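USER: My hope is that you can spare some time for a protein that puzzles me. I am handing you a single protein, as its sequence and its fold in token form. Walk me, if you will, through where the backbone shape changes along the chain. The protein I mean follows directly.
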Amino acid sequence: MILIVSLLLVLNFIFFQMYSNQKKIIENYRDNALEAITTDEDMKETLRIGLYHRFKRDPEEEKAENPLLFEHFVAEIMTSVRGGSTYVTKGSNDYGVDIEEETDAGLYLGQVKCYNDLKSVDFKPIAIIHSQMIKQGAVGGYVITTSKFTSNACNYANGLDIDLIDGNQLVELWLEHLDSKRESVSEFKAVPAT
């Protein structure tokens, strides 16, 4: 009987060691994959294009999902990387404001544009956000796209406290958001149970 109990204890110890090693290997693979994604420009470009295809609105495709998914996706990222809280406005009669973000510094207003590479964002969304910033007393704003901005848009935004975040910058923010989520989970796991 003692031999069986001893054998079970040894087997239990061996399985525990194998599980711990497997877990470390998986975490190492995950960390290496995240490192590769965050440092490789081609991978970031692939992610940017993927974001467009994931969230594009195609009237011919009858998606059953929420048409505001892209707005919610961006709002979650902004909350994660900038702090504060975000609110996604309703789809119509929002006067061009997709996201209202409340931070310690004050109110920020945002508009998002899910465009492909053939369509760059012009100055009009920037003008709308600027107008709403003045009307609502916001301290800043942003326009975010999966594409790029025209030079005219960049010139228009100059000096208006409006950040222009193109597709590549959006991917950077998304990766920062994912990294902060990973760190939060790691910190949660490190807290001993009581």
Remarks:
- The helical segments are 2-39, 41-55, 69-82, 124-136, 151-157, 167-190.
- Residues 141 and 162 are 5 Å apart (CA to CA).
- The first helix runs from residue 2 to 39.
- The mean pLDDT is 83.
